[in-house]
Design brief:
The protein is built from 8 helices and 15 strands. It is an alpha+beta fold. Strands 7-11-12-6-13 form a 5-stranded antiparallel β-sheet, with helices on both faces. Strands 1-4 form a two-stranded antiparallel sheet. Helix 3 crosses helix 4. The longest helix is centred in the C-terminal third of the chain and has 24 residues. The structure holds zinc ion (ZN). The site of zinc ion (ZN) has 8 residues, from helix 2.
Length: 310
């Protein structure tokens, strides 16, 4: 076997798609649910084309950072209006997302030609500390504001997928406040971004992170134009070299359970209006949802004890 990172002929070892350290933070999520293959299995998602040296030594620094980051900020849940002061290492977040996307693309036999030697060397070299200009990372808080508690959709705290759909307009077209009638927009094509190469969405419990990779030769002008649309049209913060951003909720009741659906900012507002109108945000409904959530958390603790990580 040829190692996917260093290219040397070696025996393949099992590389976790999402690092074992992160999976270990959520032992209650002991089943892997693979929607693409319509399969569910009790072991971790893996890819087996990485040599022992790369797996255990060269690229493990990325996983150490990823675990620390998720543990520090995203094990807890957030409330709908929370703002998180988020400090991060921008280069390491780029590397984390690139690595997990690369692993997933190989495991699913997708076209991973974006990952050329420059990108792979960036991942392999712990000391390369200038971020890639053609990789954009956005982040927000995933908060369940829907009337459907988390357990209805299974224990699904870690999710990821390629090609999230960036909508060009709001999911909800109109709310009639007299009758309560909600009209869903019929024609809502995805936003088109020039020079887009690879995109991924990652849900790490209460974090939602978007990886957007542009063609290597994308012009500064085109890159800026794309970033302006991303910044103003979607409820995510664009991370940057300053290493500090404020994260706010990037989900609504329409998108929380569908992480690959990226609604526009005003669409999230309209979904919130619907939640208000329906009473999901009323004090009584919130008390009820909190009680259900508490019971589910007790069940999760039981599941975590029953399924300790090996
Ligand atoms: Zn290797």
């Amino acid at each position: 076997m040829k190692c996917a990172y260093c290219g040397k002929e070696a025996k393949g070892t099992k590389e976790h798609i999402i690092s074992s350290g992160i999976l270990g933070l959520f032992p209650e999520c002991f089943m892997t649910i693979d929607g693409d293959r319509k399969k569910m299995y009790p072991s971790d998602p893996m890819v087996k084309d990485v040599c022992a040296d790369c797996n255990n030594n060269k690229i493990s620094y990325i996983d150490s950072y990823a675990k620390q980051l998720i543990q520090q900020y995203f094990i807890v849940k957030y409330e709908k209006d929370d703002k998180l002061d988020f400090d991060y290492d921008y280069v390491l977040i780029q590397k984390m997302c690139l690595k997990y996307a690369f692993n997933d693309m190989r495991a699913r036999k997708l076209d991973y030609s974006f990952f050329d030697s420059d990108i792979i060397n960036y991942l392999l070299d712990e000391h390369s500390t200038s971020p890639l200009r053609n990789v954009t990372i956005m982040a927000g808080l995933a908060v369940n504001t829907s009337p459907a508690p988390d357990f209805i959709f299974g224990n699904n705290k870690l999710r990821w997928g390629d090609n999230p759909v960036f909508l060009s307009n709001s999911i909800i077209e109109n709310i009639d406040y007299n009758t309560g009638k909600v009209t869903i927009r019929e024609n809502n094509p995805p936003e088109k971004f020039e020079c887009l190469s690879v995109s991924y969405v990652f849900r790490f419990n209460s974090a939602q992170i978007l990886l957007i990779c542009w063609d290597k030769n994308i012009s500064e002008e085109q890159l800026n134009q794309n970033q302006v649309v991303l910044k103003y049209q979607y409820p995510y913060s664009i991370l940057n070299e300053s290493g500090h951003s404020v994260l706010e909720r990037c989900t609504s009741e329409s998108t929380y359970h569908h992480e690959k659906l990226i609604d526009v900012t005003w669409g999230q507002g309209l979904s919130d209006e619907m939640s208000y109108m329906r009473g999901t945000f009323s004090e009584q409904a919130q008390v009820h949802l909190k009680e259900v959530e508490k019971e589910w958390q007790a069940e999760e603790r039981r599941l975590a004890e029953e399924h300790p990580r090996k």
